[in-house]
Write a structure and sequence with these properties.
The complex is a heterodimer of chains A (560) and B (137).
Chain A lengths: L1 H26 L6 E2 L5 E2 L13 H4 L23 E2 L8 H13 L5 E3 L3 H4 L22 H7 L10 E4 L5 H13 L8 E4 L3 H6 L9 H18 L3 E2 L1 E4 L1 H5 L4 H21 L4 H4 L3 E7 L3 H22 L12 E5 L11 H15 L4 E3 L12 H17 L13 H23 L3 H6 L2 H19 L27 H17 L2 H16 L5 H11 L3 H12 L9
Parallel strand pairs in A: 3-11, 4-5, 5-6, 6-7, 8-9, 9-10, 10-11
Antiparallel strand pairs in A: 1-2
Helix pairs in contact in A: 3-5, 5-6, 6-20, 10-12, 10-15, 12-13, 12-15, 13-14, 19-20, 19-21
Chain B lengths: L6 E5 L8 H12 L3 E4 L6 H11 L3 E6 L7 H10 L6 E6 L3 H9 L4 E3 L5 H19 L1
Parallel strand pairs in B: 1-2, 1-3, 3-4, 4-5
Helix pairs in contact in B: 2-3
Classes of the chains: A alpha/beta (560), B alpha/beta (137).
Chain lengths: 560, 137
């Protein structure tokens, strides 16, 4: 009886499907195959024939349960919201301090610090063209600059994320500030963003300061130091964002990022560290494009693959080690200079993809980032977008709300397959360091970037206002951020000169010597000496110059 | 006189390292038959001038995604000082409208914003290169 019911149902299903197929073929405007950005062909309809629940506990599980496909915490956003972490950085430390206090009042729940591009390149303010100072981030060169930037901000209770590549001088300055304020380091929480030297070598060269071998060693020193002395700090943020912004497809960006994660984990294990001691502090940082369903599937697949890697490949036993914690940033590449207010709609869709993807922390781009560093008004709208999605649209009431969708589950499986194939390819090349030294990853990303640009140029991919629906417009109508006044930068340079004159020269010289020896020894911890040098009064530029001298200048490998 | 293909330097000066744009443009100008000399980011102005002299470049393309365009007027002056007034300079990237005016005043031939089509860029660079070659003859 049960059997005949089943076959009746199947017969009914087949007939219904055939009817739909006929109607679809007769009425569809366009029946050509459509592929998503990762190259997966997308069908017009998904049914139980594509996905029918599978082995629920094995492939999906409950939120917070292995393999974490539905989220890394049992409570997800019912427990707490994602962290609203807007990137902030401009001018001199006092300008940053003022902006931080404003944005905290608007509802941001954590700090971020974006330093000036001169800082990224490893230089002090007195070494670079003054025209460029403070135009893209805050000039921080000394422990005193950091004291001004963090003035009145309770770093013992507020998480601070800093864009702070190798050798992590900004964290060193913050730890020195904590020491001066009498705050124990175990109260300091936050993340060393931009700590992933591989992504800098491959894609975002701005952060790449020291030769790859040296950078590879310092990042492990940093993880080791943080585990011992700043235990609530996340010393590693493994970055897929750079590669996707540079043109990698969502599947490529996820795969290469997981490959970098494998290298960092294996380097820590080779140092003798227990996987359960460092994996809970690994974090990831991804780009969120406007390809909504694909991004959701990317995040769900990545979460499942990472859990399996941690448990099966690295042998981690603590469920906290299996958690794929990530920050998402809405993709700037998707934004357009044409009809820029449209970017608010784009950012909204991107943010939805990240939220449905289960992120832990979110930066929403301001619509005017196509013109300049965001204006205050545009930054306010970006924060409001997050509040609207959470509190007006109620996107967070249900955990993993797209889970169980025939389409999303099929796509999650397909993305997983594609990502795993790329991981196998990089493993076969000898791991991520080998693959990037050969230019393999750079070449694939470059090809994907060109392919996408050609799709836009041919009109195959519509970009509203760019290759379709254009209007006459004058972009002088839109506000751009004023650059900091020249006098303020002159003041900053003067202050640096004064600082260098009045500090204890012998203490600085000694600290830089110790730093140089640590860089040349096999067993010293370079980051520990960066912290001591920062506290002794060495500047950012001096610390970077010392390590460049001892370990080599970081020249990325670009393939064109 | 045999006509050589347009010769273009694609480079980045200043601090920024975002080079998707400069690499895509390099690939696309090469596909269009031009000779392209690509440099990694962070070139010194003096290096770019030296390269332009040695290579007898027709066009220099500067990609600027942060604020490095603020030192392009210094590059223009250095080119003039080196007697390279005839080399055309084009800029692509994130350039606020008020800064674009200053770049044009400083002698930049053309500024490309996000959303510019590759075809438009190729055509502009080709005609700038040809205008230089013709003026030489």
């Amino acid at each position: 009886m049960a059997e005949s019911q089943q076959s009746n149902q199947n017969g009914g299903f087949d007939a219904a499907r055939a009817k739909w197929e006929r109607e679809f073929a007769a009425g569809a405007l366009d029946t050509r195959p459509i592929a998503n950005r990762s190259g997966i062909e997308v069908k017009p309809l998904y049914t139980p024939e594509d996905w029918s629940g599978g082995n629920y506990l094995n492939t999906l599980g409950f939120p917070g349960e292995y393999p974490n496909t539905r989220g890394i915490y049992a409570t997800m956003y019912r427990g707490r919201s994602w962290t609203q972490r807007q990137l902030i950085g401009l001018g001199v430390p006092e300008d940053y301090n003022k902006r931080v206090k404003e944005i905290l009042a608007l509802g941001a729940s954590a700090l971020s610090l974006i330093p000036c591009n001169s800082v990224y390149r490893g230089y002090d303010a007195d070494e670079v063209p003054i025209e460029l100072l403070g135009t893209c981030g805050t000039v921080i060169n000394t422990v005193e600059d950091m004291e001004r930037a963090l003035d009145g901000i309770p770093i013992e209770s507020l998480s601070t994320a800093m864009n702070d590549p190798t050798p992590f001088t900004l964290l060193a300055f913050e730890l020195a500030v904590a020491r001066r304020r009498g705050i124990p380091w175990n109260k300091i929480t936050g993340t060393s963003n931009q700590s992933d030297c591989i992504s800098h070598f491959v894609a975002n060269h701005m952060f790449f300061r020291i030769d790859l071998q040296g950078a590879r060693r310092i990042v492990i020193d940093h993880i080791d130091f943080a585990n011992k002395h700043v235990p609530s700090w996340n010393p590693l943020s493994i970055v897929g964002q750079h590669m996707q912004q540079a043109g990698a497809t969502p599947a490529e960006a996820m795969a290469f990022t997981l490959c970098s994660g494998i290298q960092y984990a294996e380097d820590c294990i080779a140092r003798g560290m227990d996987p359960d001691s460092f994996l809970p502090r690994f974090t990831f940082f991804f780009d969120i494009s406007i390809s909504l369903f694909e991004e959701v599937a990317k995040f769900r697949a990545g979460r499942r693959i990472w859990a399996r890697l941690c448990r099966e490949r690295f042998g981690a036993k603590d469920p906290r080690s299996w958690r794929f914690k990530f920050h998402g940033q809405t993709s700037g590449v998707d934004l357009t200079r044409q009809q820029p207010l449209n970017n608010i709609a784009r950012v909204t869709v991107q943010a939805m993809a990240g939220i449905f993807g289960g992120l832990q922390s979110l930066h929403t781009d301001s619509y005017d980032e196509v013109f300049s560093t965001p204006t205050a008004e545009a930054a306010r709208i970006a924060v409001a977008t997050q509040n609207i999605l959470r509190e007006e649209a109620h996107l967070t009431d249900v955990i993993d709300p797209l889970g169980g969708s025939y389409y999303i589950e099929t796509l999650t499986d397909q993305m997983e397959e594609k990502i795993n194939a790329l991981i196998d390819l990089i493993d076969a090349a000898g791991g991520m360091y080998q693959a990037v030294n050969k230019g393999l990853v750079q070449q694939m990303i470059g090809e994907s970037a060109l392919k996408f640009q050609k799709q836009v140029d041919s009109g195959e991919q519509t970009i509203v206002g760019v290759n379709a629906y254009q209007i006459e417009e004058n972009d002088a109508d839109y506000p751009t951020l004023e650059y900091p006044a020249r006098e303020r930068m002159e003041m900053q340079v003067k202050r640096l000169t004064e600082f260098k004159k009045t500090r204890s020269q012998s203490a600085v010289a000694k600290a830089l010597d110790v730093l140089a020896s640590a860089a040349n020894s096999k067993d010293g911890n370079v980051f520990e000496q960066v912290v001591e040098a920062a506290d002794a009064g060495a500047t950012h530029g001096e610390i970077c110059a010392t390590l460049r001298r001892e370990m080599g200048f970081g020249q990325p490998l670009t393939i064109v | 006189m045999s006509k050589r293909p347009p010769k273009v330097i694609v480079t980045k000066i200043g601090f920024d390292g975002h080079d998707r744009g400069s690499r895509v443009i390099t690939a696309c100008l090469r596909d269009a038959g031009m000779e392209v000399i690509y440099t990694p980011p962070w070139q010194e102005i003096s290096t770019v001038v030296k390269l332009a002299t040695e290579e007898d470049a027709d066009v220099i393309g500067i990609s600027s995604l942060a604020t490095d365009h603020l030192i392009i007027p210094q590059l223009m002056k250095a080119l003039r000082d080196a007697g390279l007034d005839d080399v055309k300079v084009v800029v692509g990237g994130i350039i606020p409208a008020k800064d674009e005016k200053e770049l044009i005043n400083a002698g930049v031939a053309k500024v490309f914003h996000p959303g510019s089509s590759l075809e438009d860029i190729v055509n502009t660079v080709r005609s700038l290169a040809e205008s230089r070659t013709h003026s030489e003859v």
